[in-house]
Amino acid sequence: MSDLGTAVAVNNGDNGMFFGCESLNRISFLRSDIEFIRATMNHSSTVFVVFVNGEAVLDKDKNSILLTHLKDDTKLDDAIRKLVPLMNTAGIRMLESGVNITFLGLMEPDKRSADVVSDNLFIHKDIYRGVPYYGIDIRPNSGTLIKPEDVEHLLKMETVKRMSVFEMNNAIASLYSHAKMYLNWLGKFKYCPDCGSALYPVDGGTKLKCSNPDLTQYCEVRDLPVNNVCFPRTDPVVIIAITTRDFSKICLARNKRRIGSNVMYSTIAGFMEPAETIEKACSREIWEETGVKCSEVSLVCSQPWPYPVNLMIGCYGIVDFNGDNEIINLNHDDEIMDARWFDTKDISEAIDNYSGKGFVDFSMDKITFPGSTAIAHHLIKLICDKFKRSQGSL
Ligand SMILES: [Zn+2]
Where is the Nudix hydrolase domain (predicted)? Predict the structure, then answer.
């Protein structure tokens, strides 16, 4: 726990890793209650996080994503009223309705912003109370139930640029991440991976069912006794800071990306493969990308990353120098351009001088390191802190 605490301590003043701040109670057990879904969808307090063609709409005045109260948008309210009866039916599919909708959770009273009045909460069974939040991705055409003219005011609005999300506060960026990952999944998975029939969302847009009506045909998705639905996807990615047992050195690598005239050195990262432990995925990625042999991996913390649906699993790996383990060899994989062992002391100085915004500048060789919105920053800082502690300076 102390490692985790150290890793997330510097984080824009918000709670938790960037994209990982959970403002909503997801109350996942209520998603299957269709009456709960119908009632929350058009409650007077309900807030929609609005996306158009897969990207969030920008609220220019607030430099935020657009959060629309249904009571303030009669056109969206009218559209939602048409969609409510279609929930849990094939008619709610994007291709027929023109939208994807997903239930995100309840913003409970203690997490509410001051502008939400206290007598306007949704209350379920006198236990669960708050403001319901939904994500909606609008992609209408002339053949869909919701027509482009029904939501023209939203279609005309500017959408969020990727880098601007990193300027938003963590609570908003995390809400964006939450909605984007569900809506991205709903947008991509339209057909049953076994029989090819149309999939349709159930449980408030958090699961997909196969619609194949032919019961004489066996379908792995429809007919399996337990997991007879498609669940949302999260792709696990391992991300590792490579260090020595005394934390005095850190191995970082760079790809082709440039930050202005600077180059970025960062931690190694790669997708996990099926039937692989987190630890083995780390040592494989380290060896494939740098040639370095690491046999001891520790798990530190994780970060949701909505580009498109990743979970970054942060680790550090210890390399025992023996004249062979530490040798860098870039010939296995052409993914990175360079890798090198830095002195932790030098990186630590750069991080100590970091303003907290943007990237970390290294005084030498026009090099930058990742800023605090990236888990890589926290992993590198963790090694720096461990080194300082070993030197008695922290
Ligand atoms: Zn099927």
Answer: 232-364
